[in-house]
Design a protein that fits this description.
The protein has 255 residues and is mainly alpha-helical. 64% of the residues lie in helices and 2% in strands. The protein is built from 7 helices and 2 strands. Helix 1 runs antiparallel to helix 4. The model has no long low-confidence stretch (mean pLDDT 93). Bound molecules: ligand NDX. It is an enzyme of class 1 (oxidoreductase).
Length: 255
């Protein structure tokens, strides 16, 4: 396989278009899973959350890993490039092999799982293909301000995301499916602390890679889970009369 810059441009543009489609579909009406799923826990047409999240996210880890294995001779020089590919796989290792096994979420709709998997194949291919076959970085990219600041943002975002996922999980005992008011960590300031972390993470990745595919993915993430944070916030305000009034939806002190 070789690098086709036109393919990268086309796939990144399509990802940007999907982001706008996602935004237009879900700005008013949230994606129908989790607390926005109206019919509770009907087993038909749903898969247990553990299984669903594992299957859905697996391609985001496997596809870049396969592309890496198929690349002969291996090309991930310089160090900056190798590190960037590892960051992407690191996140999806967590999301595929760790997050699903601890989740206490409700069963996930099969239809969304199918589209989610397609999305993960698409994005895993785009990010992996670009980093493994196309990206060119100077040998001193690791000391470039874009790489270092992007890496710091990525790590900060990932830390917030994982910590917030943990706080949400601890709200329930095994087998419980009720919703409670999240407390602690960044939830003190925003209802969508896990989403805020994830958005910071992927913008950090985009800055560190300084690439069109990564910026397209960060934009998609913003359009996908930004509105979802807003819908979560409205849900909490509607459901809990004692919900902290100073808490924002997504961005601490701002929105
Ligand atoms: N999965 C990313 N669009 C999505 C699946 C659906 O990873 O075709 C986007 C992802 C996909 C979507 C994905 C892309 C767009 C798709 C869509 C389906 C249709 C759509 C493909 C791939 C589509 C077009 C046409 C435009 C292409 O019971 P429960 O489950 O609610 O329990 C929850 C629990 N919890 C609480 N427990 C007690 N009390 C409370 N108050 C609670 N609040 C929540 O915590 C869950 O077990 C858990 C987390 O819940 P929630 O709702 O906060 O997060 P969730 O949305 O489930 O995300 C989980 C993590 C989170 O860290 C988030 O940052 C990350 O995954 N994520 C999620 C979505 C997308 C994404 C990251 C990204 O874009 N980077």
């Amino acid at each position: 396989m070789q690098c086709f810059p036109g393919l990268v441009l086309a796939l990144s543009s399509l990802l940007g278009a999907l982001a706008l489609l996602q935004l237009s579909l879900h700005l008013r009406v949230p994606s129908r899973y989790g607390k926005h799923e109206e019919r509770l826990c009907r087993p038909r047409g749903r898969l247990p959350a553990r299984c669903a999240w594992f299957l859905q996210e697996l391609p985001s880890f496997l596809v870049p890993a396969l592309l890496l294995a198929l690349r002969s001779p291996p090309r991930l020089e310089p160090l900056g490039c190798r590190l960037l590919c590892c960051l992407f796989c690191w996140h999806y290792f967590y999301r595929t092999f760790i997050y699903p096994f601890f989740t206490r979420g409700r069963p996930f709709p099969l239809q969304l799982l199918f589209f989610g998997m397609l999305f993960c194949i698409y994005n895993g291919f785009l990010q992996g293909y670009y980093l493994i076959y196309c990206a060119e970085y100077p040998n001193d990219w690791c000391t470039d301000i874009r790489f270092t600041s992007g890496l710091l943002l990525f790590l900060l975002g990932m830390g917030i995301n994982i910590h917030s996922d943990l706080l949400l999980r601890q709200l329930r005992k095994p087998g419980e499916v009720t919703y409670k008011i999240p407390q602690g960590g960044l939830f003190t300031y925003v209802s969508g602390a896990n989403y805020f972390g994830e958005i910071v993470e992927w913008f950090g990745f985009a800055i560190a890679t300084w690439s069109l595919p990564a910026f397209a993915f960060a934009f998609f993430t913003l359009c996908c889970i930004g509105p979802r944070a807003y819908h979560h916030h409205r849900y909490y305000l509607k459901t809990f009369t004692d919900y902290p009034k100073s808490r924002k939806a997504l961005i601490p002190f701002v929105f």
